[in-house]
Amino acid sequence: MKCNACQGEISEGRAKCPLCGFPVIQTVGNNEAEIENIRKMGRDYLRQKLEGITVGIMAYGYVMGDDGLQLDQTAEVEVAKAADLEPGKAVWLDQDFQRLDEEGEVTVHAFARKNDQTKTWELPVQLPKITGACHIGIVLKDGMKAEMLLGDSGSYTESADFALSEIVGEAGGEA
After folding, report:
1. Distance CA 169, CA 173 (A)
2. Average pLDDT rounded to a whole number, residues 73-82
3. Mean pLDDT for the chain?
4. What 8-state DSSP symbol labels residue 128?
5. How many angstroms from the chain centroid is the CA of residue 169?
6. How far are the Cα atoms of 78, 93, 94, 167, 174 from residue 75, in angstroms, in the given order?
7. Under 8 Å between Cβ of 167 and 19
8. Cβ partners under 8 Å of residue 147, min gap 6
9. How far apart are CA 22 and CA 25, in angstroms?
10. Could you tell me the pTM of the whole model?
11. Is the pLDDT score of 82 beyond 90?
12. What is the mean pLDDT of residues 137-161?
């Protein structure tokens, strides 16, 4: 069974989702209006759970020195507000990132922040088969997970997923 809020898997007999805490709501028959109302409640609940979370990456600037490229600066770049993400829909940052390599794997240093709590992940990502600069995107997946995207809306690669539930906090005790 899938959670009506985060779409995570819920095992039989549970009263609420172990990932987000949304209650398991049983429907009677195939009442489409009732089912759609539960789905809307789930979407609203998920948006509330993700409220206040900012997801971003660390961007690195380099300069050419006597010994080759040298790290010059680092900056946190906000990619999206988690509450604005819709499951399965990519959100792209409108900023170019220069590529140092044409192929291979890079590590995206992602973070999620809520209030004074920050969680970081090092996410390996294959460079996409595009020419020129890359863009960074994010997509919300089932179970309050997300993936960083590298490329552009026409061609991109995905990172391993990371759990936004780690920054949200506990889903709540199971009754």
Report:
1. 12
2. 91
3. 87
4. P
5. 15
6. 10, 15, 16, 21, 40
7. no
8. 138, 139, 141, 158, 159, 160, 161, 162
9. 9
10. 0.83
11. yes
12. 93
